[in-house]
Amino acid sequence: MAKYKHIVVPKEGKQITIKNKKLSIPDNPIIPVIEGDGIGRDIMKATRRVVDAAVEKAYKGKKKIAWMDIYAGERANELYKEWLPKETIDAISKYVVALKGPLTTPIGGGFRSLNVSLRQILNLYACVRPVRYFKGVGSPVVHPERMNIIIFRENTEDVYAGIEWKKGSKEVKKVIDWLNKNMKLNIRSDSGVGIKPISVTGTKRLVRKAINYAIDKKLPSVTLVHKGNIMKYTEGAFRDWGYQVATTEFRSKVVTEDELWSKYNGKMPKGTILIKDRIADSMFQQVLTRSDEYSVVATPNLNGDYLSDACAAQVGGLGMAPGANIGDFIGLFEATHGTAPKYADKDVINPGSLILSAVMMLDYLGWGQAGQLIEKALEKTINKKTVTYDLHRQMKGAKKVGTSEFATQIIKNM
Ligand code: NAP
Predict the structure, then answer these.
(1) Is 327 strand, coil or helix?
(2) What's the 327 CA to ligand 1 centre distance in angstroms?
(3) Would the pTM count as exceeding 0.85?
């Protein structure tokens, strides 16, 4: 067993392994957990209690998670004098499935976001963000219940790859001079420059994951969201390569929107998934006006970041927005929001997003029964109008409770 400096491996747990390209999950899997900074401390405690209660209730003691604390962010800096210690990365790689609270991005000194670093080092190329409505939550739209979308956002490329040069730097001058001379361009010398790489590899593995998810969950469609009318060789290529994956690797299981009309007279053949594409700006309208026409969405990094927050705003906001970063096997489950420092240690913040991220994690482990218990109990708690401050300000006649009490109510309502 690997020797760690500060991580204590729980004796009662077993490691998740990969056998024949599939996860092999013991009844007592060791799950590494990064508590997170700021409100991470409030929401992780609440989440672990809710998950343990649901697993106990669903499997009557036959299954149990062996949580294993690992460290990143402020806590890691205290313990190791490092923000992202190597043994944290090693533990996630080894134990395959992990839960994470939000992390502060250290300010100054050329630090990259710890979250972006984790995704890139572990090659967690798909950021998966489901957005669904829980009955009773206040919403700025008339029909929030029509929203049930799962966004697969590419996590490693695009303008988020971190390839950019500051205005006035030696490097940017070199890049601009080279482009102006060799590509006959006319870029202003007082520009900053960023690069937007989008590859066949990055696109195909993401779209493949999105289609496989739609097949597994028997969902009706996968929509490729891009800005290919303007950025032809990056976003337009994303669309073309996406259709290629669909029509070569999944031929018998998919119908494209063109084929739907040219071959099938507008009627989907039974058991097939519709593959369509939308231009990003139009998609922002569509999710407001016709959200029920969309199910799984696959999109490059920047579009996905904007789109997932815009969708979350319709169903209760960041307190209800779960997510996961998934690679070929490793899954790092985390809320979409950050550390909200002004609410840290006050026991007021909504733990819903991390709890729902843990529901995704349970589903990933094949423990969907426990996940469903949590989702139903959360819905029941909201229906009974017992909610945290963020939902309270959007609901009439609700009772405001703190983080820990909200978790207690969810457990009671299981
Ligand atoms: P933030 O932490 O997401 O908080 C922004 C606002 O969103 C909060 O003030 C609050 O709004 C609302 N909010 C966030 N979480 C909520 C929850 N659980 N329940 C209810 N409302 C919630 O964004 P930020 O203040 O811009 O970022 C703070 C730090 O977090 C930064 O260091 C940033 O780098 C980091 N960050 C980390 C991650 C990550 O770990 N994945 C993601 C994003 C940001 P109201 O005040 O209106 O109630």
Answers:
(1) coil
(2) 25
(3) yes
